[in-house]
Amino acid sequence: MRIRIATTCALRSAALGALLLLLAAAPAAAQQKLEFDHFRTGFPLTGSHERVPCEACHTGGVFEGTPKGCGECHQPGSTRAATFKPPDHIPTSNRCADCHMVTTWSSVRFDHRDVSGACASCHNGAMAQGKPANHIVTTADCGVCHRTLSWTPAHFDHQGITTGCFQCHNGTTATGKPASHPPTSNDWEQCHNTRSFADATFDHSKVTGNCMSCHNGTTATGKGSGHFVTSQDCNACHTTTRWTPTIAYRHVSPYYVDHGTRVSCQQCHTTNTEIATWPFAGFKPDCAGCHFNNFRPGAHLKTETPQTYYTAAELRDCKGACHTYRDATLTTIVRSRTGHHNPRQGSWD
User: How far apart are the two ends of the chain, measured CA to CA in Å?
Assistant: First the structure.
């Protein structure tokens, strides 16, 4: 009897011990399940994948055969709860991981060096940044001017441009005329070239209007500090083919006698102004008003018998007639000289 009781107690103690062992082993098994090493599957859980529930990828409780490539899950119609390319995604055959990161889907790195095809297929203003409203009007592809490593600055080859400069150089799309630019309705290409904007040529033969509207010392070369003081326009003395030497000014005064180009303006206009200077004002407007000191009585015989000579007052008009008479009656002309002194010759002889 005592033996049965002892045996029964021993069995109960063994069962209780086994139960305690099972209870102690249960947390360890649960802990082993939570610490499952996903790296051994060939698909380590990193980034956002660490927070994804198992059943989001292992649908229906099936673990074996779960895809490892991004595109196999992240595609339209996938049975897994994964995002996929939206309709406006950039057209590409690259793998998702080439651009996207597992930490966050919106963090994208894109290497333009591997891009082929037309830039505008993506840079159309919808998929990626496109031309702004004030962009230069052109049908050229982005890559003609822009670089993949830096959108700005852009390089533009003007060699193919021959006309229509103002379509871009209007002060908004591209550099336009500065405030000090000569007023003109000419096209840019008539003066400027595509190699150098500042190296401009100007054809004055097509210019109409007032020279001083440009040649005012600010817009273009104006009068120098020692210039003749005058209100006349530049073309009264200068020509458009060359600035110097000046042409002979066409005097409007009825008292002016054409002296040709041998006499400078300052020889008569000693004050360097439009007001003529008369050294012998009592004889103006005749030649003697300037040339009284040049008169030589001995060369101007008036009568042969007796010999008399003209005075400067009598021959104040040097270019007029000069007669030599036989006697004091002044009735018989022995010699006659008309217009002997020619002011254009530059000599009295």
Answer: 181
